[in-house]
Amino acid sequence: MGCGHLFYSTLVTFSVALITYNIIISANAPLKQDFPNPSSSSISVDPVIEMPLERSRRHGAAANKRLFHTAMTASDSVYNTWQCRVMYYWFKKFQNGPNSEMGGFTRILHSGKPDKYMDEIPTFIAQPLPAGMDQGYIVLNRPWAFVQWLEKADIKEEYILMAEPDHIIVKPIPNLSKDGLGAAFPFFYIEPKKYESVLRKYFPKDMGPITNIDPIGNSPVVVGRDSLKKIAPVWMNVSLAMKKDPETDKAFGWVLEMYAYAVASALNGVGNILYKDFMIQVG
């Protein structure tokens, strides 16, 4: 990609005091200034690839935009609410920018009740899990909240970007998904091969090799709306099953729900294009 087409989004994670943010930005220094094409005409699912040049060329004035709806789950805590307000502010800043395929936006609030920011941030009210079901792991409310939203909301866009309150958008985001595949960031700490014996409880051998499970979480992911409608209930059930199993809970800890999404995606036959430049993690 030439320097004139630096509008691909990535996520940067950094820490300020005790607050962590993921920043959605374009490719910029110190990132590489050029993103070469994949080596073949078809994009492989498993290899970690760089963002293809074709993705910038197709965003001319005559190109048909493939809009995606940005959705993030949130609690009603003061900290989480503040993050949501910051995230939505920057979303609006770049929603209609060059190369953007950013459609609508929804905060999926899983507190079960409205708050005073309903008029500021487009919000869907989801019910939390029954008391005690999350076992103190509040993230388990995320897949259940997505299930409710996908069932009840009128979502116009054909694609969904699953985001989180600690994401800050600083450049317009194009739709990086392709050919029925999702677009996701490969996390170095999601290791299906290492935990094959544990994962086989949820992804049996007749479903294929363990490498069919991508090293991803549910965010950042751009995926087809219809695909996510199939994935979400499985994601929820796998998450709950994993949390109930002591071996799995111990093995995966705070990333348990991320593994559950990766498994659910694989169980539904939805592969992902892995963009190593989608997110940058710095300390």
From TrEMBL:
Gene Ontology CC: one annotated term? membrane
Q: Where is it located?
A: Membrane
- Does the keyword rRNA-binding belong to this entry? no
UniProtKB keywords: Glycosyltransferase, Membrane, Transferase, Transmembrane, Transmembrane helix
Q: Where is the Hydroxyproline O-arabinosyltransferase-like domain?
A: 68-282
Question: What one GO molecular function would you report for this record?
Answer: glycosyltransferase activity
Entry annotated with the keyword Methyltransferase: no
Identify this protein by name: Hydroxyproline O-arabinosyltransferase-like domain-containing protein
